[in-house]
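Tutorial handout. Part one gives the primary structure; part two gives the three-dimensional structure as C-alpha cells.
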Amino acid sequence: MADLKQIARQILHETLAAIDIPATMQRKLRRQGTRIVCGEKTLDLKDFEKIRVVAVGKAAHAMVEGLVFALAPFVGFAGAVAAPSLPKKPVPGLKYFAAGHPTPNEQSWKAAEAILALLRKCDAKTLVIFLLSGGGSALMELPLDAKQTLEDVQHWHKALVTCGASIDEINTVRKHLSAVKGGRLAATAPEATKITLAVSDVPVGKESALASGPTLPDPTTAADAKRVMKEYALGNKFPLALQKWLKDEKMPETPKPGDGAFRKSSFSLTLGMDDLLHPAHHAAEALGFVTCCDNSTDEWPVEKAAEALLRQLAELRVMHRGRRVALIADGEVSSPVTGNGIGGRNSAFVLACVEKIAGEKVAVLSAGTDGIDGNSSGAGAVANGRTLERAKEAGLDPRDFFERSDAFTFFSRLGDAILTGRTGNNLRDLRILLADR
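Part two.
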C-alpha cells in the first residue's frame, strides 16, 4: 500500500511538470510580423499607440514570461503585476506588487489603485492585455466604499472565505463590494481594445468567477449578493463600515452583458480543466491503471465529495477486477473552517477519507496545483489504508483534527503532507484516487 502513495505522488508531479505556462502561452499567442494571433482573433500592432499589461494572480509571473516570449522580438509595454511574490527577473516597464493571499494586504490595495490609474489613461489607440489566474480576488482589491479601510476589507474577506459558502457565492458577494471585480476593470477603459488571457481554476462556463471576473460581464446581480449574505448571516460578521454602507443601499449593480465596456473585449482560455486532467490521466494509464476522470463533485461539501469519489473508485474496482484502477478528479470542495488549526480543503478532503479507506488497498491524494492549501505551507496530503492504524499508534485522532480544521498538522506528523512549494501555476485542485487489484 505504501507503493500506492508513492505512485500518487508521482502522478501529481508528472502532471505539474506538464502544465508549463510560458510554453503554452507561446503556442496560443503568436506574433506574425506586426500581427498578434490569439486563437481566432488577430490584431495588428500598427493599430495601437500604446500596449498596457495587467497581470493578476498566482500564475502572473509565468504568464508575463510567456507573453514576453510570444511577442518577441520584444514589444515595449507598461503595466502592473499583482502576484504573491516579486519576480526573479522583472520586466522593464512593469510595476510589481507582492500582494496578499488568501487575505488582501497593503500591496493588494496599492496594486488595485495602480491598475485603475493605468486603465483610466487608456484610449481607443491602446491595447490592454490582461493576464488573469487564480488568487486574483485577494491579490488585487479595493472597496467600492471609499470609507472602508484595509482592515475592513481584510475583515470581510476572511468572513466570506470561512462562512461555508461555495466559491460561486463568495465571488458573487466580492463582485458587488469591490471596485475592481465583476467587469469593473473593463469598464474603466471602455474605449481600449482588451484581450484577457486566462489560466483558469474555475469550471468551464463560469469564467467570470476567475479572479472574480474583473474583465468580463457579471451574470450575478446585487440581489444575488444580498441573498448570499442573508443565507450565511454575513451581515453581523462584516465590519461596521461595510454594514452601514449596505444598510444605506449604496451597493451598485455590476456591468452586464451588452454593456459598451465589453464591445472591444475578448477572452481566451490559455490553460483550463482539460489541461489538468489530460496529463494526470495519461500519467496514471502509463503506470498501468485503468483510469477514469470526474468533475462532478466540484463545490460539494468535503465529506460528501469524499464519499462519492470513493464510491466511484469501488465501482471501478468491480468493473475491472484484477486490474489496478485510478480515478482522477478536479475542482474545489467546500470545507468550512471550524477551528483554529492549520490546513485547507485538500488536506481536509484526504483526512475525510482516512477512516473510510482503512485496511483497503487504496491511496488518496488531493493537492492544489498552486502548491498552497489554505493557511498551510503544503499543497495537500496523501493517505492509504494504513494511515488510520499509523495515526492511532501516534496518538492522533482523525476526527478531532478534522473538527479543528487541523488536517495539515495531522499529515505533517505522519510524513504525508504534500510539499511542493509555490508552483507558479493555478489550475484546479487535483485529486488522485488509486486502488490495487
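Part three, for discussion. The first strand starts at residue 29 and ends at 32. The chain has two domains: 2-10+274-435, 21-272.
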